[in-house]
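Q: I'm a student working through a structural biology exercise. My instructor gave each of us a protein and asked us to get a predicted structure, then write a short paragraph describing it. Mine is UDP-N-acetylenolpyruvoylglucosamine reductase. I'm not confident about reading structure output yet, so if you can add a plain explanation after the tokens, that would really help. Here is the sequence I was given:
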Amino acid sequence: MTISHSLKNALIEIVGEENLLIDELICNHTYTKLGGQADYFVMPTTIQEIQAIVKLADREQIPFTLLGNGSNLIVRDGGIRGIVMNLKKLNKIARDHNTVIAQSGARIIDTSYYALDQSLSGLEFACGIPGTVGGALYMNAGAYGGEIKDCLKEAVVIDLTGQLLTLAADQLELDYRTSNIPDNGYIVIEARFALVENDHAQIKAIMDDLTERRESKQPLEYPSCGSVFKRPPGYFAGQLIQDSQLQGKGIGGAEVSTKHAGFIVNKNSATATDYIAVIEMVQKKVKENYGVILEREVRIIGED
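A: Happy to help. First, here is the predicted structure for UDP-N-acetylenolpyruvoylglucosamine reductase. I'll explain a few features afterward.
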């Protein structure tokens, strides 16, 4: 990449030199440990900085990508051009009566444990979801029978023009692993969860049980993007993959987990190309065997 000193200086003026990285390897910021370089990697610390970056990118027609903590994402080996914005420094969590207010960069796991500390119930299902609050809203994240739309009251977002909006949960059209956030180009700034007071010990028991189930069944010892595929109607993706005898099969350093067939793990310094090739191999084999098309839950972005 050829560095534009005018763009670099403009970004430094907005976020400060300590919050701008040039040619940053995205593999340092993804759960899969995959992904090439980002031209400009910015980490704003205020809403005003986010708005300024959005307006700068729009005005100068610079490609702009929002990156959470990369838990449900594959970034290709060629990386991402333009500005990549990461909101991990906006991570405050607070309580207002029975509403938990969490900034976009807070981890949804931390938000669920904050609710536990406050003896508030409704976010127990999220205690093992390894994404940010913003990412959880983006895809209506869920686990063990619960999902974000069950407890989200409203969200504060920034639109494509940099305007700040407060939207009720139903305005986000949350559905199975989808929302209208990507279609509208919204940047989630804050989520407000409507929870219910309950016995602390009872909430903790549920979360302890879910954590034990997750740790015993999921291949947490290797980098991965989590569950790769959506559940096809009438089937379970993991069961179809297991029945296709694909566990342990791989390409390069990536392979289908032997512990949970719904996961693909970066077992030995895989590239994004390896990882994507395994996804495509699984989709092809399952379609051949069962006529079922496995739809990706994980997003793939960036350049080859």
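A: Here are two points you could use in your paragraph. The chain has a mean pLDDT of 95. The longest helix spans residues 272-290. It's a good idea to check both against the output above yourself.
Q: Great, thank you!
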